[in-house]
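Example for tutorial group B:
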């Protein structure tokens, strides 16, 4: 590596056993490497996030029924955990492991630039450590940048309003700030009177063919199928049954729960690579996940989105951005449900936004075309 190569660290939610979290970390890391940086993901094991993805939790052992359910599902949970560990080990260039914020201060010295993002890194409810993800441990403002950071909500929740001055003070110190949603841009504007640019989530910096070359895996599944991927069932199960009747296609459900709530083939211990392949080869996708939606757009899938009971800013933004708000699942299913998406205009928009987002990344690392 050339001595003049920029040494760059990324702080994000890579330690979450969540498909979107690890895949966006992979995408940002590799795109920055393509731009000529020496890039690694800072292996900060945020205690609250790590605890949230532990296999053994107190609530598991509260009742005999919950204990039985846990042990019946244990092998799937263990396999899923192992697949995420293996993915991070194989695909992410990680720094030495860091378990507390004090150690982050020492790590800051080794990087020329530190990027916070992407994902919901500025959502206090997700990490209970928003200041760490606002880089309060970096003493040199010229090192601090944010790429596609997200708050995950339309406005700061009331319980965090007393901290607004501190948040604003930290954001003022950034050399570059970009966010992932229009709603996040408005929050930043209200805090520091500067509206940051809205850029693409890192997974959208890569094209369909890029993802095929990276993660195409062989999975035994029907020739055509409906893929169901959700955080909360909501209206998705009923809609999936409806779509199954209309198309005659089987359902594949990415879900680690033991209880079967729908007649489908359950994939309970899916790896991030398998997740990409299942989305890539699906005929239809039903989801309420941001990254499930984003991959559906990249792969030009006919997809349907169920809005969550709250915090829909991420989903609403990506659907509005590409003119796809009509893909939201309604209570009543109309005759237009089978209308395919015309991706000609959508793909043009992706190319435009991808070029603008890459331009912003180059600005962060001092390689702007301008």
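The residue assignment follows.
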């Amino acid at each position: 590596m050339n001595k003049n190569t920029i040494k760059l660290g990324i702080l994000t939610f890579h330690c979450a056993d969540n498909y979107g979290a690890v895949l966006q970390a992979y995408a940002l890391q590799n795109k920055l490497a393509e731009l000529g940086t020496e890039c690694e993901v800072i292996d900060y094991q945020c205690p609250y996030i790590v605890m949230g993805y532990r296999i053994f939790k107190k609530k598991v052992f509260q009742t005999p029924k919950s204990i039985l359910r846990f042990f019946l599902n244990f092998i799937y949970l263990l396999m899923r955990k192992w697949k995420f560990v293996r993915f991070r080990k194989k695909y992410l260039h990680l720094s030495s492991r860091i378990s507390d914020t004090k150690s982050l201060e020492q790590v800051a010295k080794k990087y020329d630039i530190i990027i916070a993002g992407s994902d919901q890194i500025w959502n206090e409810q997700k990490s209970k450590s928003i200041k760490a993800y606002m880089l309060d441990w970096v003493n040199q403002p010229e090192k601090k940048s944010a790429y596609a950071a997200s708050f995950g909500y339309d406005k700061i929740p009331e319980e965090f309003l007393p901290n607004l001055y501190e948040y604003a003070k930290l954001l003022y110190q950034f050399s570059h700030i970009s966010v992932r949603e229009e709603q996040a841009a408005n929050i930043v504007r209200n805090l520091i009177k500067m509206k940051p640019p809205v850029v693409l989530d890192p997974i959208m910096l890569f094209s369909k063919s890029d993802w095929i070359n990276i993660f195409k895996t062989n999975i035994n599944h029907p020739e055509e199928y409906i893929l169901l991927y959700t955080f909360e069932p909501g209206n998705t199960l009923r809609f999936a049954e409806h779509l199954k009747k209309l198309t005659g296609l089987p359902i594949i459900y990415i879900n680690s729960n033991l209880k079967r709530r729908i007649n489908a083939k359950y994939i309970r211990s899916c790896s991030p690579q398998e997740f990409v392949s299942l989305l890539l080869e699906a005929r239809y996708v039903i989801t309420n996940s941001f990254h499930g939606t984003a991959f559906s757009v990249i792969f030009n899938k006919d997809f349907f989105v169920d809005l969550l009971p709250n915090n829909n800013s991420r989903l609403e933004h990506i659907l509005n951005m590409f003119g796809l708000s009509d893909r939201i699942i309604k209570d009543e299913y109309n005759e237009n449900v089978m209308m395919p998406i015309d991706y000609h205009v959508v793909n043009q928009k992706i190319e435009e936004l991808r070029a603008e987002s890459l331009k912003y990344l180059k600005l962060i690392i001092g390689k702007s075309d301008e």
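The two ends are 26 Å apart (CA to CA). Compare this with the pattern of hydrophobic and polar residues in the output above.
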